[in-house]
Amino acid sequence: MTTCAHNRSASKKLSAFILFVIGVALTIGLFYIKTRAQTAKDQVVRLERAIASEERAISVLEAELAFRESPERLADLAEKKLGFEPISTKTTLTVEDLVEDLPFREDVLSEEGLRESSSVKGGLKERGALE
């Protein structure tokens, strides 16, 4: 019976040692996972700050672009730097003015496959261009 009691005592010691090793392994694993989770949280915070910073920079750039593309500013620069002036009605042409200034020949109209609308054809006939 002594060997049986001795085996039970050794068995209990071995079981306790195995449970101790499992406990230590679980503690080390939990510490590792906790450390990795904290590192991931820190990285998320850094990325969120970087994203916020980039979004602020984008807002500034969009505001600058809106300023640079404003029609008033462009018109002012075109007038000052290039000597451009706003278009007046005196410098625009109507369709009738075009027909008077650039009379079309009938063969040019048919070669280019242009549709001869009744108003254009009528206007050309009145001016003698289609004769």
Task: Tell me about this structure.
This protein has 131 residues and is mostly helical. The protein has 2 domains: 10-78; 93-126, no CATH class. 77% of the residues lie in helices and 0% in strands. It has 5 helices and no strands. The chain is rod-shaped, with a radius of gyration of 45 Å.
Topology:
Layout: H1 2-68, H2 71-82, H3 95-101, H4 106-111, H5 118-126
Descriptors:
5 helices; 77% helix; mainly alpha; 131 residues; disordered C terminus; 2 domains
Shape: rod-shaped
User: Low-confidence stretches at least 5 residues in length (pLDDT < 50)?
Assistant: 115-119, 123-131
The overall strand count is 0
Helix content: over 70%
Tally of domains: 2
Rg, Cα atoms, Å: 45 Å
How would you sum up the major sheet?
Answer: none
| Share of residues in strands | under 5%
**SS content category:** mainly alpha
Order of helices and strands: HHHHH
* Mean model confidence by pLDDT: 81
Helix count, DSSP H or I runs of 4 or more residues: 5
How far is the N terminus from the C terminus? 137 Å
